[in-house]
Every structure is written in structure tokens, then in C-alpha cells.
Design goal:
Pfam families: Rieske. With 105 residues, the protein is mainly beta. Helix content is 0%, strand content 40%. It has a single domain (2-103), classed as Rieske Iron-sulfur Protein (3-layer Sandwich), CATH 2.102.10.10. Strand 6 and strand 7 form a beta hairpin. It binds FE2/S2 (inorganic) cluster. FE2/S2 (inorganic) cluster is lined by residues 41, 43-44, 46, 65, 67-68, 70, 82-84.
Length: 105
């Protein structure tokens, strides 16, 4: 595991993008729990966001790909709507310890 950032950098209901060792990923906090995924849409393999750190839909309930609007569950990355429905984002194992977020890349 390697440190990604301080825990308080990702507030409740917020998402944040990172690049570590050439790997693009993002993290989302929902109901206190942190989830991390590779920043790669299963549809075309491109980054999900158009604006920095904007990975969620307007309601903040789902992860959204800005290119064609695919929607993914925050909890498991499953695509529930859009051109890659039935596929999933690639999860990055993460945990919080000592006030920091740690990821396994
Ligand atoms: S590239 Fe993400 S929905 Fe098409």
C-alpha cells in the first residue's frame, strides 16, 4: 500500500482524481466510506472526467463518464446505464489509516 493523500482531502460526497506512477485513479467518499477506481471508462478506455475532480453525476449519487454519460455505482463500479452497461470500473483497493488514504496499485 502507498499513501495517496490526507483523508480530509476527500470530503463526504466528493471525488478527487490522482496520478501515481503513471496510473490515473480517483477516489470517492460516500456515507463516510472511501472507494477508489482506475480513471478509465470501460467503454473507450479514456478518462471519465471533463473537469478536474468531477467524477459524479449532478446528484452526487453515481459516478458518471463525461464522454457518453455512462453511470456507475459508487459502491462497486458496476455500469448501470450507458454504452458499457454490464461492465465495471476497475477497483483499486484502498483503506484509511493514520489520517491518510492508502491504495494498492
Ligand atoms: S467513453 Fe465513457 S461512456 Fe463512452
Amino acid at each position: 500500500m502507498r499513501a495517496l493523500c490526507h483523508s480530509d482531502l476527500i470530503a463526504e460526497g466528493q471525488s478527487k482524481g490522482f496520478e501515481r506512477d503513471g496510473v490515473r485513479l480517483f477516489a470517492v467518499r460516500k456515507q463516510g466510506k472511501l472507494y477508489a477506481y482506475r480513471n478509465e471508462c470501460p467503454h473507450l478506455g479514456i478518462n471519465l472526467e471533463w473537469l478536474d475532480d468531477q467524477f459524479l453525476d449532478a446528484d452526487g449519487c453515481l459516478i458518471q463518464c463525461a464522454m457518453h454519460g455512462a453511470l456507475f455505482l459508487i459502491e462497486d463500479g458496476q455500469c448501470i446505464s450507458g454504452p458499457c452497461q454490464g461492465q465495471a470500473l476497475q477497483a483499486v483497493p484502498c483503506e484509511e489509516r493514520d489520517g491518510k488514504v492508502w491504495v494498492a496499485l
